[in-house]
């Protein structure tokens, strides 16, 4: 039993799971979108069990109420029993499965299914802004780093303020290093030199230069004369088509405050008008011109591209908050490809883009925390962080707070602190600082381990206290 949103995913994973366990199955899709909203009471009006079924597996979220009484005056009649009567099955055969259908095989006793995010269908074009202001060697070095982060093509961004007579040298150097190259200029002399040197894509073409584009012999990006003028894009597309010029279409993404929403509608309209044409979206107008960390913005834009059939994105990473946009786009394009191909939300697939906070916290209950604090008999220090509070625990010590300096000051004033030497104090200060960050952001803190920042995580070497300190933290 599931809701409409999870139908595709459940059918796929159920087929795999039951094949591993040699059982037959059927799937009932309830008239509700989200399976998590299904309750046992609601199911009494919607459960439809085939006569051949021996067990019913409900969404895991039903677990919280399945054994509640239907009526307070009849505590023996639970929702499980009521559903069993409807299904004509023993109550013990009415089961609550996993919350996530991807865990069905593991719930049945198999292994947790891993998701491979190797596939993608969007090309990443990484622009090097004002490339002629750099040396050829610098451009080659930057391009190599961009390729390592996931770029499929290097876009040589020319300088609008002055013509570069050596642009062919830049392009040739990149081509010699195995890069696919595009040239970003409206200057025809720069375009010809770049194409001659090996550039295979020109950004961009409209009424101002489409006549010249017929002589370049390469693919071009067709754009409107002004962003809100799709009719001018139609004219350029028709002209290029009549002259057999390969093209991809870019209706131009506008920044927030300058018609962002309307520009998204133009992408949808362009796809409707030209269902067979390749398309491109320049996404830097959002990531570079919005005061927000770029990872989430990149994911949303890549999702739109995947749904609209936009096969390439052009981006850059100039401003600091977008300095890792290429890597983010590479992760995002794999997530959205899998999501749309499999018909599942991009959730619990990868935590690489979950950077500020963590996917899930594992806090201790108040009772467990108190038992830990009261049960410790040694002088080693345990550090925990949850619910915005840092805990420092040892034999006879349970300090709480959110300020490492204050906590260390309080610790050093206690008789138990005689075991804290200089190296130990440095260690505790370092770990308390990490714990404070975790508590402040709502991250999971694990002592002696690096905080998890998704794809930005840098694992830490384990720094043990020198052996001569009797009370080191092992």
From TrEMBL:
Stated name of the protein: Dihydropteroate synthase DHPS
Gene Ontology molecular function: dihydropteroate synthase activity
This protein's UniProt keywords: Transferase
Organism expressing this protein natively: Rhodopirellula sallentina SM41
Entry superkingdom: Bacteria
One GO term describing the cellular component: cytosol
Pfam families in UniProt: DUF6513
EC number: 2.5.1.15
GO terms (BP aspect): tetrahydrofolate biosynthetic process
